[in-house]
Specification:
The complex is a heterotrimer of chains A (272), B (761) and C (192).
Chain A (H helix, E strand, L loop, with lengths): L1 E2 L4 H11 L3 E4 L5 H7 L6 E4 L9 E4 L2 E5 L4 H4 L5 H8 L4 H4 L4 H7 L5 H8 L3 E6 L3 E6 L4 E3 L2 E2 L5 E9 L3 E8 L7 E9 L5 E6 L6 E2 L1 H10 L3 H14 L10 H21 L4
Parallel strand pairs in A: 1-3, 2-3
Antiparallel strand pairs in A: 4-5, 5-10, 6-7, 6-10, 8-9, 11-12, 12-13, 13-14
Helix pairs in contact in A: 4-7, 8-9, 9-10
Chain B lengths: L18 H5 L15 E7 L5 E7 L1 H5 L3 E6 L8 E2 L6 E2 L5 E2 L5 E7 L2 H9 L2 E6 L6 H5 L12 E9 L2 H6 L3 E8 L12 E6 L5 E5 L4 H12 L6 E4 L16 H11 L3 E4 L2 H7 L6 E9 L5 E13 L5 H10 L9 E10 L13 H19 L3 H8 L18 H12 L13 E13 L10 E7 L5 E5 L8 H13 L6 E5 L16 H28 L6 E4 L2 E4 L6 E3 H10 L5 E6 L20 E13 L5 E11 L6 H20 L5 E2 L2 E2 L17 E7 L16 H4 L1 H13 L10 H15 L1
Parallel strand pairs in B: 1-14, 12-13, 16-17, 20-21, 27-30
Antiparallel strand pairs in B: 1-7, 2-6, 2-8, 3-7, 4-5, 9-17, 10-15, 11-12, 11-14, 15-16, 18-26, 19-20, 19-25, 22-23, 23-24, 26-27, 28-29
Helix pairs in contact in B: 6-7, 9-10, 10-18, 13-14, 14-15, 16-18
Chain C lengths: L2 H26 L2 E7 L2 E7 L5 H8 L18 E4 L2 E4 L12 E3 L12 H9 L8 H14 L5 H8 L10 H23 L1
Parallel strand pairs in C: 1-5
Antiparallel strand pairs in C: 1-2, 3-4, 3-5
The chains are: A alpha+beta (272), B alpha+beta (761), C alpha+beta (192).
């Protein structure tokens, strides 16, 4: 069956009724590919293209509130550098005009460039259900495995909240310079009180927040020595796999290398 | 153009004859020819890379609503076989399946959706056999034989001089290995087409290949039809690069049409296109190269192992090309080269742009670099000293009258600014590097294989000059070139020429669009035919004007007196007069040069190929030494094309070849584990994008070739061959050690850097 | 089969096949879709699970939109959806209800080629031509938004369109050429 709700309430109602059997369709850039490859079976589509509320992008309470159906193309010019850079590396313009931030979070790919940037920006996700209304939690906490999140079957992603005031950087290694799935990618940010946050992709079953490395820097300060330590901690904490895109050893090493590179950039641009 | 300017269409950029229809989307490709009104067919593929198929249960599929028919080998009345050199592939396997692309049957359905579901319902009962996934597995003692004759398809050799003795006596000897990857053609236009029966019973197939007359033979043989009952028409074709040489959908289409007596369409998905099609041979080369202390090459011992995949395809010819190009454009007096082609359960490997020569170019250029390091000589100086000169012999001892190797390299060095090259970068982890390659390539099938092209040129009743060629244009621009040559001979503009092409019923056999042969072969055939039509016109005009034919010339649609332009006969009138007087004004010509088969026991040949093309590419790269990422900044690609008949098209071929070469150098790789292709899609089979494109300078050198039309040589394959070794040499320059495997992914470059660091400690 | 058997087969079975095929096709097309294609409103029954690519090519027979991968990786199926380039293969047909789609067939106006189409021919940016419609649609969208792009902006706008033949160099030239000639056209229009 194919459902095309006209507004948020209708969408929530249908989602509540169908639960896990209702598959949300936004940009389709992952879902439609999955169907074509026979990777995804869909019994019921819930097409969100007519739910205008989900496309809102606004400033609210010191956050950038990004409606779940905001397409990557719109984020390319946002003020958070890591997010803008990550959004700009997703596919080509044609994909960025379709793919949405909510879709990227919902698919929970460890190679999700935008998810990793958001994690490193301390973003929160707002979930909504007909029965329980809305809830907000740290984005990093909802990923439970490849393609798996703790979002309930009757919930949908309403928005992502990105706090202001953090400088951030993003770096991606792919197999070519555009429209490439990441081999390893990382993002890092630094807040007004010099606290850092680090996110890494493709090195664990989920987009990874490197808390231990962050704690090390946050308790010892950001300098050349702690950056090296943080890179080493990251190498220890990641759990990459060998696959046809890269070997585990390379990914592990690069997780550290990119951490170092991004933290140096944050250090150098400090106050600048 | 002033009335007295002589038209000079050959050598001038002319707009492609096929471009207008392509920019508007009006030109139909194979997949555009039929809509939902036509039934669609899909292929049942092997469930396992190596198995004995016991039975194919089709009942469930046959009973699904909307399924029209299911066909298996029992429905085929011909040989049920195909294959370009050996007919070693079954259309539908009757016993043994040897790779995942092997076909077992065909389903015909009302819609693509029904077809997809029906194909999933086919149940295949089979006994799995050991999967031979690598050459080492295939060559192991007691390895399971993939074919009755074992796992070795073919071997080839070259013996000139005495390599063993010469190596012993050399001052310096290096041993170098190079491993190239399996590459996919990745043309964008998936295999797609339609077929139907004409009123007169002619089985008419619209599908893209590279040699329509050979495809007609293969379809007729496999299905048990006389050739005259099969007609192949080539639709607009979105790239080929060797990937359409092996037959694809033509026989399946033919079978379904014969059985159902109605039109049928087939369209592969990208995945099926990649799983079913042959690939470029992954080749492992062990290279031993010797020199005197001052850098004179003395001898090469070369061992080549080539992964054939499951069937022969054009493998024996690819192996011969590899062997016969094993020392490239270098003067090596003593050569011992042995090549072996090995069956595995991977995709069959066959023709792809470069055809064995591009793999060997990486091997000999890497060996030269390593030798330069050993001798502590500048690699460019080493090359200068050893590149062939006019009249010298290549690997097979064939003497080449015009050798552009050195000229091309000097030009490449000059254009990239070799003497002024600098190594600064704006990041501490970035290193800059420069490299230059020299390559050569023998044009045509060569080696005594029958090789001819025919073309027909005639005046139509509407006054247009018509050129008929079966030669396939899959984007390289053959039809524009054929039109230009005919126009040039008859003093016409290109828009006064109509090219009728690629239809076995209408056009004379022109051989395949492969082996960088069509510019020379069909170019010459068209020129011969057009010049004979010109002779007839001049005869007619001579009789009319009273001038000797030699005192007349053709320009501006007129036969005009050379001395007195007032004496003239409009072409239209000449054609009418000619018709009245019984001139045919319709000439078919054939160009069939001779080549000589290799000598048994040595592989030498005085004329292995009709002629050779020489080229040199220079590259500038930036390497991130912390991540191994490589960014190609510039490529200069210099080719001695003899004569650029259409300079813009020649540049286009070179630029396109460079980017395919860049893809091969840095990113493209078919990854196979146990006979399963892991990246049969464009998400993970990565080809270069516009953002990966460096600043490319295509430089045309025109030292005329004695064989080619107006001195022209083909450029298709050499355009690719020079780029990978130039990029690899530049990477080596940047990181101080060679990467001896393609693609040089970030990970491999990083590993090479780590190995070098470990050695330094 | 003998000729006679074939004749019997033809008369009886061809009619049956036609009937089955017709019925199955109708069963799949259950969703009434209204949208605008190249400025013209269309109403067509589609399979709600098909993509815009299929709707355009199979149902509307607008075959200028190509598809090399059908997985959003090649850009051959680029069309404009409300003026923005998207890959038609990833858009589900019902998603375009009430929206405007422009395909390669909609770029030339009154038999006059779009500036990008002209410049692709002149610059030699066309080889096999399979990627060409998608590239031209992407380039037209870029020039609409940014009439005088730099070479890097051209690269960025076309990064989602793969080409296997040309090496992209003449494509960049063509788009830059079209951008300047487009500006001249506008300047002339202003004078008029």
């Amino acid at each position: 069956m194919y459902f095309q709700p006209k507004n948020l309430d209708e969408a929530l109602e249908i989602k509540a009724k169908l639960g896990a059997d209702g598959t949300l369709l936004a940009g389709g850039t992952d879902l439609v590919v999955g169907i074509r490859k026979g990777r995804t079976q869909v019994s019921n589509f819930i097409d969100l293209s007519k739910v205008a509320e989900l496309g809102e992008l606004q400033e609210q309470d010191g956050f950038l509130r990004i409606g779940a159906a905001t397409v990557h193309r719109r984020l390319e010019s946002c003020a958070h550098k890591a997010l803008a850079d990550a959004a700009a590396t997703v596919g080509g313009p044609q994909i960025r005009n379709l793919g949405t931030v909510g879709g990227q979070i919902g698919t929970a790919s460890p190679a999700g460039d935008v998810s990793v940037a958001l994690i490193a920006l301390n973003a929160e996700v707002e979930l909504l259900s007909a029965a329980r209304g809305s809830r907000r939690l740290p984005l990093a906490d909802i990923f439970t495995g490849p393609g798996k999140t703790s979002i309930a079957d009757d919930e949908l992603i309403r928005a992502v909240w990105v706090p202001h005031g953090r400088r951030s950087e993003f770096y991606k290694i792919g197999k070519r310079d555009a429209v490439a799935i990441s081999v390893v990618m990382a993002a890092a940010s630094i807040g007004p009180s010099n606290d850092v946050a680090i996110g890494i992709g493709c090195v664990a079953p989920t987009p990874l927040r490197c808390r231990r490395a962050e704690d090390h820097i946050n308790s010892h300060g950001l300098d050349g020595a702690t950056i090296n330590d943080a890179a080493q901690i990251v190498r220890e904490d990641v759990s990459p796999i060998d696959d046809h895109r890269a070997g585990a050893a390379y990914r592990r090493e690069m997780a550290g290398t990119l951490t170092k590179r991004l933290l140096w950039r944050l250090l150098h641009s400090k106050g600048g | 153009m002033s009335p007295h300017t002589k038209p000079k269409i050959v050598g001038e950029t002319q707009r492609r004859v096929d471009a207008p229809g392509k920019v508007t989307g009006d030109t139909p490709f194979g997949g555009d020819l039929a809509g939902p009104e036509v039934l669609c067919a899909g292929v049942i593929r092997s469930p396992h890379p190596h198995c004995e198929v016991k039975s194919v249960s089709v009942d469930a599929a046959r009973n699904r609503d909307g399924v029209i028919a299911v066909f298996t080998d029992e429905d085929i009345e011909g040989t049920n076989r195909h294959g370009l050199i050996r007919r070693d592939q079954e259309v539908f396997v009757t016993g043994r399946a040897r790779f995942l692309g092997d076909a077992l049957g065909l389903v015909v359905a009302a819609t693509p959706k029904v077809l997809a579901n029906a194909l999933e319902e086919i149940e295949i009962d089979y006994t799995p056999l050991p999967i031979i996934g690598t050459m080492d597995d295939a060559l192991a003692e007691n390895a399971f034989p993939i074919h009755p004759e074992g796992n070795v398809l073919a071997s080839q050799l070259i013996r000139t001089g005495d390599a063993d003795t010469a190596l012993k006596e050399s001052d310096a000897v290096i041993q170098s290995t190079f491993k190239t990857q399996c590459v996919d053609h990745a043309f964008l236009d998936r295999e797609a087409g339609i077929a139907y029966l004409e009123e007169d019973g002619m089985l008419t197939i619209h599908a893209a290949g590279q040699w329509i007359h050979e495809e007609r033979r293969l379809v007729a043989l496999a299905l048990g039809l006389p050739q005259e009952r099969v007609r192949i028409i080539q639709p607009a074709t979105g790239g080929a690069f060797g990937g359409r040489e092996d037959i694809s959908i033509q026989i399946y289409l033919g079978l379904a049409v014969l059985k159902l007596q109605r039109p049928i369409r087939i369209e592969y998905s990208r995945k099926e296109s990649m799983l079913a099609r042959h690939k470029r041979h992954p080749i492992r080369v062990h290279y031993t190269l010797g020199a005197t202390s001052d850098g004179q090459l003395t001898a090469a011992r070369v061992k080549i192992e080539s992964d054939e995949g499951a069937y022969a395809s054009t493998g024996p010819a690819v192996l011969r090309k590899a062997v016969s190009h094993c020392t490239g454009p270098y003067r090596v007096p003593n050569i011992a080269c042995d090549g072996v082609a090995v069956f595995t359960n991977n995709n069959p490997t066959g023709a792809m742009r470069g055809f064995g020569a591009c793999q060997l170019a990486l091997a000999y250029e890497t060996a030269i670099l390593e030798l330069a390091q050993r001798l502590e000589i500048d690699p460019v100086a080493l090359k200068r000293r050893n590149l062939l000169q006019d009249g010298e012999g290549v690997t097979t001892t064939q003497k080449i009258p015009v050798v552009g190797a050195l000229h091309c390299m000097e030009l490449a060095l000059e254009r990239i600014g070799w003497d002024k090259r600098h190594y600064e970068t704006n990041k501490p982890y970035l290193r800059r590097g420069y490299g230059v390659s020299s390559i050569c390539f023998g044009l045509g099938y060569g080696d005594g294989f029958p090789d001819a092209s025919r073309a027909r040129v005639r005046f139509a009743d509407d006054g247009m000059l018509e050129v008929l060629t079966a030669g396939v244009d899959f984007g390289q621009g053959l039809h524009t070139l054929a039109g230009q040559i005919a126009a040039n001979e008859l003093g016409l503009a290109l828009n006064q020429v109509r090219v009728i092409a690629s239809d076995t019923l209408l056009t004379p056999e022109s051989g395949s669009s492969s082996a960088t042969r069509q510019t020379v072969f069909t170019g010459n055939a068209v020129r011969l035919a057009a010049s004979e039509v010109k002779r007839q016109i001049l005869d007619i005009a001579a009789a009319y004007t009273g001038l000797h034919w030699d005192d007349l010339e053709l320009r501006n649609r007129m036969a005009i007196g050379k001395e007195d332009a007032k004496i003239c006969l409009p072409l239209g009138q000449a054609v009418r007069l000619g018709r009245e007087r019984g001139y045919s004004l319709d000439v078919e010509s054939c160009y069939q040069p001779r080549t000589v088969a290799p000598e048994a026991g040595t592989g030498k040949s005085p004329r292995a190929f009709l002629t050779y093309m020489f080229a040199s590419h220079a590259a500038e790269v930036l390497v991130d030494i912390e991540t191994g990422e490589v960014r190609v900044k510039r490529i200069v690609a210099v080719h001695d094309v003899g004569k650029a008949i259409n300079p813009q098209q020649v540049e286009g071929q070179i630029e396109g070849g460079v980017m395919q070469g860049l893809g091969m150098a840095l990113m493209e790789e078919v990854i196979t584990r146990d006979g399963q292709m892991l990246n049969a899609n464009f998400t993970d089979y990565i080809i270069p994008t516009i953002v990966d494109t460096p600043d490319i300078e295509a430089v045309i050198v025109e030292r005329e070739d004695p064989e080619g039309p107006y001195g022209a040589r083909g450029v298709g394959e050499p355009a690719l061959i020079g780029t990978p070794p130039a990029i690899l040499a530049a990477i080596s320059d940047a990181i101080g050690t060679v990467v001896n495997e393609t693609p040089a992914t970030a990970e491999r470059v990083w590993q090479a850097i780590q190995r070098k660091k470990a050695q330094a400690i | 089969m003998t000729r006679r058997q074939l004749d019997i087969f033809n008369r009886q079975d061809q009619a049956a096949i036609d009937k089955t095929a017709e019925r199955v096709r109708k069963t799949e097309a259950t969703w009434p879709l209204r949208f605008t294609v190249n400025g013209k409103p269309v109403e067509v029954a589609v399979d709600p699970e098909e993509s815009l690519y299929d709707t355009l090519r199979e149902r509307l027979r607008l075959t200028g939109t190509k598809g090399a991968c059908l997985e959003g990786e090649c850009g051959s199926c680029t069309v404009l959806l409300d003026g923005k380039p998207v890959t038609a293969c990833l858009v589900m047909a019902p998603q375009v209800a009430g929206r405007k789609v422009t395909t390669i067939e909609g770029l030339a106006a009154d038999d006059r080629l779009h500036a990008v189409q002209e410049s692709f021919i002149a610059a030699g940016a066309v080889q096999c031509g399979y990627c060409t419609p998608g590239l031209i649609v992407s380039a037209a969208a870029l020039l609409e938004e940014n009439p005088q792009p730099t070479a890097d902006q051209v690269r960025e706008a076309l990064e989602g369109n793969l080409c296997r033949c040309t090496g992209y160099t003449k494509i960049i030239d063509a788009v830059l050429d079209a951008s300047s000639s487009g500006t001249e056209d506008k300047a002339n229009a202003g004078v008029d």
